[in-house]
Task: structure prediction
Amino acid sequence: MRLIGAGSLVYLLAVAFVLSGFAQTDPQRLSASASDGDEAARHRQGQTIFRFDTFGDEQLWTNVLRMHEVIPTVSPVTALAVGLKVDADALPPAVVDALRAGAVDLTNPAVTSELLRLNAVVGVKGTVNEAGQLTKVGITCALCHSSVDDSFAPGIGRRLDGWANHDLNVGAIVALSPVLDEATKAEFRSWGPGKYDPRHHAFDGTNIVPLNSPSLPILIPPIYGLKGVGFETYTADGPISYWNSYVGVGQMGGHGSFSDPRINLFIRQTPDLVTPKLPALLDYQLSLRAPKPAAGSFDRVAAERGKAIFRNEARCSTCHQGPSFTDVLSGPDREVPLLHSATEVGTEPGYAARSATGQYRTTPLRALARHAPYFHDGSAPDLPAVVNHYDRLFGLNLSAAQKADLVEYLKSL
Result:
């Protein structure tokens, strides 16, 4: 079967646009639609920011890291292998048909640029000129916090906003930059899929500034089911918009301002392209509901027994309280998070020590079965490992049957 190269793919896309009336989503146009202030428009604006807004972070990914020079050498096969996802809804029908027929050469790096031209690579925003050259690249929130349902093929499907991309190897991708030294590249490569270290460095608009070393990567968390949780990060440094600002400016490299004397980080850039967008972004994030357990994914009878164990013998509900299964808001002042030391919960202390609080919040148990591994550092590969950890830590002496029932209950959440 003849495979379509990049030049033929460009022609195919042009034909598809004419025949199907397909038009690429324009984030600026969608953002403008929210000017009337109605709830639905605000939701659309937040979704557009989450999916497509780079906050001007091309200043890091293009001007400093020069990733626009590297990405054109990466084939779609390689991009999928490091966890990048493709939004099937962004592909014109003719391209979808060609992909299904195996008529697109996914080993050809030039095809990657064409996917970027279509805004089809989830969380990566590229500017491609008429000659097919990638001239600018940035990233969006969706890079780490969206996946796809694999309905078309592994790594290609409909977007799943709010799902942690645990296939994404951020370190391996960044290590492709031609400006980093070999020691830094090796450190980034050591992170592995689904992990990132937000305390390792920051970008101040001009330079990559060291924060802490050695690197202590943490799991990229899911961001669905956040409504009503409060202090949503692993160490409860602040509410969602605090973290959006920290990451949007200091980690993604957005053109904006962030200040927190607790961690001695002060970044000021004008105009601020991040802060004005935080309310709409928060609105969209809070709308993302945790997915329900897949049909047949747990034993309902055993889960009912496990629910009783959760509340009684295992004492899980001491900390995992209420509908959000966390006690972070249960202190005397709801404006001050209730936290736990690393020793109290038997977890790695180094990451918390680098945060503004120095402690960890109780993890809300939303859709647990969907996002293994567990704990901030991914040290528990599955739910039985989580149960065994606390059984040992607190001397619960649960029987094998009780542990199994408790796992079934956790899978049901």
Remarks:
- The mean pLDDT is 91.
- The chain has 18 helices and twelve strands.
- The longest strand covers residues 134-139.
- The two ends are 47 Å apart (CA to CA).
